[in-house]
Amino acid sequence: MLHRFQKQKGQQTQTCPSCAQTQQESEFPDQTLTQVGKGCRCRIRRHRAHGAIRQRLLDLGFVPNAEVEMVRCATLGDPLELRVGDYYVTLRKREADLIDVRCA
Fold this sequence. Notes:
The protein is of the alpha+beta class. Helix content is 21%, strand content 30%. The protein is built from three helices and six strands. It has helices at 17-25, 51-59, 93-96; strands at residues 31-32, 41-47, 67-73, 80-84, 87-91, 99-103. It is globular.
């Protein structure tokens, strides 16, 4: 089971259709983490959370300029599974909506 969580080398960066569309509209598109498509990698720009939720997100590794990959989304859209660094994190949709990202 541990082998599933090891970093895979040589993995290509995928762009989701929503990222490709927003990149055509402007040079530097900003989105929330809930708008990112499956398999897309992006960098965190800032948080709009306050208090305990902000501290929890920072403790989990959602710091500015960190790379995040959307792994999958549940059937009804909540929760979201994200890869931050070498580990996987599951976030509620309302918490992910407070994180602004820029897709690469």
